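sorry for the late reply, my laptop died twice this morning and i had to redo everyting from scratch. anyway the thing you sent over, i finally got around to it. pasting the sequence first so we're on the same page, its 179 residues, then the predicted structure underneath. double check i copied it right bc i was rushing
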Amino acid sequence: MSRIGKMPITLINQATIEISDLHVKVSGPKGTLEQRLTDQVRLTEKGGLVTVTRIDDSKRAKAQHGLYRMLVNNMVEGVTKGFTRKLEIAGVGYRAELKNDLLALTLGYSHMIYFKAPDEVKIEVPDQVTILVSGIDKSIVGQVAAKIRSFRKPEPYRGKGIKYEGEVIRRKEGKAAGK
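ok and here's the structure:
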């Protein structure tokens, strides 16, 4: 049995869950999220605990047991606490700023890069080298952060670019001088 799948999900901070056939809806103080379920798993809610069970022991049901447990858990966590990804910019002259609803990035190209975030995501720039991406849907927050990072991925020789907070960039040695 899936070790993650068999753990119950605790509903916290006014989070409510509505389960109907193959559809689950989680509401909380930060918003509402919906997810379509597979026919391989069943959700049951009892006394503030949500459990995910699979219908049989087929390979497909086993594979989706832990997946849907984590998806629902992320929904509960998102509508109560929210998710945040922090990006750090390294490089001389590299910076970010917010202009109206657009994120303006200066990343060493001949032009500025303007990025419009989806409505579900909020972008903040506390200082010129830090970008905070936050929202209630973990997958969308991760996709937006990955898109911003893709504008200038960190390179291994000088370490310049946009990286996640805590990401370790393995540095390479440059060309060796003559023998």
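Helices lie at 59-80, 138-150.
thats about all i looked at so far, will dig more tmrw
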